[in-house]
């Protein structure tokens, strides 16, 4: 296992992998942003059109956190004015099976839920 002492979430609660993962991804919005990335959204404006209507200040914060944790990469796609797009890194793409399991669980156990996308994995 590689040393992760320089990662932004060094054991906020405990070294338990579930707790550590929740420290990174476990709020109301973060996995929805990741879901949207799997669905092909890349720009700030595209994320704002999600059905959950994430507030702009929260969206900016979650994208910044995902970049800090190297789950997402921020890449310029326009020079003037500078505009950025967000793409999943390899680490982020590894969340595909997690999202797929959540979709399957939700479809089975939450009446009326409907998948907006089917993550790979």
UniProtKB/TrEMBL annotation:
Q: Which Pfam families match?
A: HxlR
Q: Does the keyword Cell membrane apply?
A: no
State the UniProt keywords alphabetically. Answer: DNA-binding, Transcription, Transcription regulation
Asked if the record carries the keyword Transcription, the reply is yes
Which stretches make up the HTH hxlR-type domain?
Answer: 16-114
User: Sorted alphabetically, which PROSITE patterns does this protein's record hold?
Assistant: HTH_HXLR
- Molecular function (Gene Ontology), one example: DNA binding
InterPro entries registered for this protein in UniProt: HTH_HxlR (IPR002577), WH-like_DNA-bd_sf (IPR036388), WH_DNA-bd_sf (IPR036390)
What is the name attached to this protein's record? Transcriptional regulator
């Amino acid at each position: 296992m590689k040393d992760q002492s320089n990662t932004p979430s060094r054991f906020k609660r405990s070294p338990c992998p579930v707790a550590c993962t929740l420290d990174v991804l476990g709020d109301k919005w973060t996995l929805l942003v990741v879901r949207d990335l799997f669905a092909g959204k890349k720009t700030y404006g595209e994320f704002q059109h999600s059905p959950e209507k994430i507030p702009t200040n929260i969206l900016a914060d979650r994208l910044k956190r995902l970049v800090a944790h190297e789950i997402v990469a921020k890449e310029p796609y326009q020079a003037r004015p500078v505009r950025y797009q967000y793409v999943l890194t390899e680490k982020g793409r590894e969340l595909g099976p997690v999202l797929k399991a959540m979709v399957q669980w939700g479809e089975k156990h939450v009446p009326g839920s409907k998948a907006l996308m089917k993550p790979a994995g």
